[in-house]
Design a protein that fits this description.
Rossmann fold; about 230 residues; binds the ligand O=C1O[C@H](COP(=O)(O)O)[C@@H](O)[C@H](O)[C@H]1O; 6-stranded parallel sheet; about 35% helix; 3-stranded antiparallel sheet; single chain; about 20% strand; 6-phosphogluconolactonase
Length: about 230
């Protein structure tokens, strides 16, 4: 496929996903006062967030948080917080309330408890969780080479501090348990490489090898473009 065609397909996919997510939030907002939307960082979600931000919704009743975050300052290039503020909390969605995963703690280990308390106050189950996936099969910050992977997959905590040799910055991540406390989950992927990784994940069951597997045993809507 030519690059421009792939780009068009990714843009259409991002728009379709935005329409689905907005529909889900609207549906839940008819039943409850506030709803929770959990988003992922990384490069894939940018056009999705921009499309979603333009859709009409009672955004002031939407609480947005992240599946994971790098423990960096909020003006750092790698900050998901900054990414959400620049690409999601704009247009109509500027009215939404954002709940960051970072605080003044020097490390995620130091800051995690306060983040846990803060996020506990949101409406759970979340209406929507949008996951991404890395080429190593990680999702959120549940990395195959992380000493905290078992905790992330098994513990009933809301968040964990996570470190992995494969990534430089310390992270904070929602646990599998919390990500699964959601009415709808979407997996947003672009590219042939990620399709191959997902196919491998679907063909096996070792969650330590490919942590995304921990999310494949329950409904997960796949949004993939070449
Ligand atoms: O590091 C991360 O990577 C994955 C995928 O990122 P992408 O750049 O390939 O879209 C993301 O889902 C995850 O939340 C993030 O921490």
């Amino acid at each position: 496929m030519k690059t421009t065609e792939a780009g068009d397909a990714r843009t259409r996919l991002a728009q379709d996903l935005a329409v689905s997510v907005a529909g889900a939030l609207r549906e839940d907002l008819e039943q409850q006062e506030r709803v929770t939307l959990v988003l992922s960082g990384g490069s894939t979600p940018k056009p999705f967030m921009q499309a979603l931000s333009q859709l009409e919704l009672p955004w002031s009743r939407v609480d947005i948080t992240l599946a994971d975050e790098r423990w960096v300052s909020t003006d750092h290039d790698d900050s998901n917080d900054r990414f959400v503020r620049s690409n999601m909390l704009i247009n109509a969605a500027a009215e939404a309330r954002f709940h960051p995963l970072v605080n003044d703690g020097k490390t995620p280990e130091e800051g995690a408890e306060e983040v846990e308390q803060r996020l506990t106050a949101l409406a759970w189950p979340a209406s929507v969780v949008v996951l991404g996936m890395g080429g190593d099969g990680h999702t959120a910050s549940l990395f195959p080479d992380s000493d905290q992977l078992d905790d992330g997959l098994e513990s009933g905590a809301l968040v964990i501090a996570a470190r992995a040799p494969s990534v430089g910055q310390p992270r904070i991540s929602l646990t599998r348990d919390r990500l699964m406390r959601s009415r709808r989950r979407y997996l947003h992927l672009n590219g042939a490489d990620k399709k191959t990784v997902l196919a491998r994940a679907m063909a096996g069951n070792d969650r330590h090898e490919l942590p995304i597997r921990a999310f494949l045993d329950a409904p997960l809507a796949l949004y993939w473009a070449p």
